[in-house]
Design goal:
This protein is an alpha/beta fold. It is about 30% helix and about 20% strand. It contains 7 helices and 7 strands. A 7-stranded mixed sheet has the order 3-2-1-4-5-7-6, with helices on both faces. Strand 6 and strand 7 form a beta hairpin. The longest helix has 14 residues. It is globular.
């Protein structure tokens, strides 16, 4: 090799190692492992558990939105939105200055809801497909996140709540409506709900009986830093028959 060629090779090697680009591309490290929940999971049987007229006659949505403190101008996520019973009514409640994001994990359901939103020209609603372990919500965006009659269907509650947590604004709250019965029977005992939320760093703000909504309403708010998945422990609560 001539001196000239050696010099050119040295310059090329130095240019490749100038630090502007990594020589080894590393994938982003995934968090985990998350705790395995110690409870059954209810199957998703239908996006509808009663007719919208029946629910309106019971005053369900109006009462839930009032107790959740939902007001004009807020940004609200409707998780497990189904056919959009709450989504449509939230649109009216938050008004033109507010926003509603409807999320579900079933593509046919989100397609049908998006078509309903388009037919009714509800410009303050967005419809999004999530996954069973991640609702895929944008960070620092929501005043309220609603989980209505769907928490018992979440197979990975610790991961789901962990990934959902950054989406809340500093004073944001998660609102859960569910029945007080075992998860396999399409409900969640309040003690189990409180324990699972606490494991991910949420504090219970309020718990109210709501027979008109088929159970109770619980409000949670994140407190302190988000825990590392490996530091979380699954709740081990006795199961009732």
């Amino acid at each position: 090799m001539t001196i000239a060629r050696a010099a050119l090779l040295t310059l090329a090697l130095l240019a490749a190692c100038d630090g502007s680009k990594p020589l080894i591309k590393r994938q982003a490290q995934q968090p985990g492992p998350f705790p395995t929940p110690d409870r059954p999971v209810a199957p998703i049987v239908s996006p509808r558990w009663s007719t919208e007229d029946d629910r309106d006659r019971a005053g369900e949505a109006a009462d839930v939105m009032k107790r959740a403190g939902i007001a004009p101008g807020m940004t609200v996520a409707d998780i497990g939105a189904g056919e959009g019973y709450y989504t449509i009514r939230l649109s009216t409640k938050v008004g033109k200055t507010g926003r509603v994001l409807a999320e579900d994990v079933i593509p046919d359901t989100t397609d049908q809801l998006a078509a309903r939103v388009a037919r009714q020209a509800l410009d303050n609603i967005s419809v999004q497909l999530g996954t069973v372990a991640d609702p895929k919500l944008p960070a620092d965006s929501f005043d309220r996140v609603l989980m209505i009659h769907m928490y018992h269907e979440i197979a990975q509650p610790y991961e789901f709540l962990w990934r959902m947590r950054p989406s809340l604004k500093p004073d944001g709250e998660v609102i859960v409506v569910d029945a007080n019965r075992q998860t396999q029977f399409h409900g969640t005992p309040p003690a189990l709900l409180k324990c699972e939320f606490a494991a991910v760093g949420y504090s219970l703000v309020s718990l109210t009986d709501m027979p008109e909504a088929g159970g109770y309403l619980a409000a949670f708010r994140p407190v302190g830093p988000r825990p590392q998945p490996g530091a979380m422990r699954a709740c081990r609560l006795p199961q009732r028959s």
